Amino acid sequence: MRASEPALKADVPTSQPPSSEPASSESAAPGGAADQPALGQGLTLAMAAAAGIAVANIYYNQPMLGIMERDLGSPDWTGMIPTATQLGYAAGLFLLVPLGDLMDRHRLIVAQFILLAVALVATALAPSAILVIVASLALGAFATVAQQIVPFAAALARPQQRGKAIGTVMAGLLCGILLSRTVSGFVAGHSGWREMYWLSVPLALGAAALMAWLLPRRHPYLSIGYGTALKSVLHLWRDQPALRRATAVQACLFASFSVFWTVLALHLQEPRLNLGAAAAGLFGLVGVVGVLAAPIAGRIADRSGPAPVIAAGAVLALLSWALFGFWDVVPGLVLGVVILDFGLQSSLISNQHIVYALVPEARSRLNTVFMTGMFVGGAIGSAGASVAWAHGGWFAVCLYGGGLAALALILELTARWSSR
Predict the structure, then answer these.
(1) Is 160 buried (19+), middle (13-18) or exposed (0-12) by CB count in 10 A?
(2) pTM for this structure?
(3) How far apart are CA 388 and CA 400, in angstroms?
(4) Domains plus CATH for the chain?
(5) Mean pLDDT, the chain, as a whole number?
(6) N or C: fewer beta carbons within 10 Å in the chain?
């Protein structure tokens, strides 16, 4: 911004957004936030598609590792590729997502998609496993553009429609997570792993063009330093108990979600089921049913408040694990995965409904805290699932996943009871 333009003041945010601060020139100028139309259904769906395209990139490599290892050699280094991608995503959550509060989100989102396309080209061209790892770090970091889109949708939506908007965009994001393994496994099996990354390049560039065309321009942002913004992330965690509670509950539920998907392929390959790895990819298609139905929970949160929806989502996740444990046949697994994904998405939408309302001018930094905690929970869930599977098989996995869902429910109910 020019030096003569007034800017929003942003030291450490408090629980109440300041009302006396002068608006930035972006909100006052023609075409700025004050003149922008409400978030329409077309833009919401476009943002959902872009979020799904972005986040899918961090999961493409998982079903392709065997093919990548045969091509690249160096099995020890090849096994580090998914870890590098996840580490890049974690770094992007902390280092890049806060930029959404500091600069024009329209330009930031478009730029990140273009850089994501560059990282995809680098990955496709990398001649060795070590260089694929380096490119995967960048790919994971720039894929966090998905986490720029979600708080932007929350900012553009009317308060009474925020849950619905968040639900739609998050449905797109979770569809990207669920379908990515199915798509990459099919493409790599028929054409090769490099072709999957080449296919993703025009998808990223197409998302950049779509966002450049549709996203509002000159949305208000804060005139604060990057270092100050990173420090304020810690202050937000300290000063916002609702943020800590929402993050803890969602971390437990995402851990429970990750438990299932970590060991599903191994369980399906057991002699009793004998379905093979390809069936695990088809379960991703089944899970989309639960995700696509979950925006209903956003509408309920808009009308009745998010707290009951969060508790109901945890109950549904717990119910899904009961089905997995006591009805361990294909119909039980199919029904359970739909219920699990619906429960996760319902609670996720409702927790984000709470988080994004805390400090409106700090939505990107709030998202940094919330999503970092959620993905840490996912990593803990995956690690614990492998241990449970190795020592106790599917029944131990069900106890572990169900225990995480129960912990989420206890945390939510305890917090609500103590606040009365």
Answers:
(1) exposed
(2) 0.77
(3) 7
(4) 37-221 (1.20.1250.20), 224-420 (1.20.1250.20)
(5) 83
(6) C
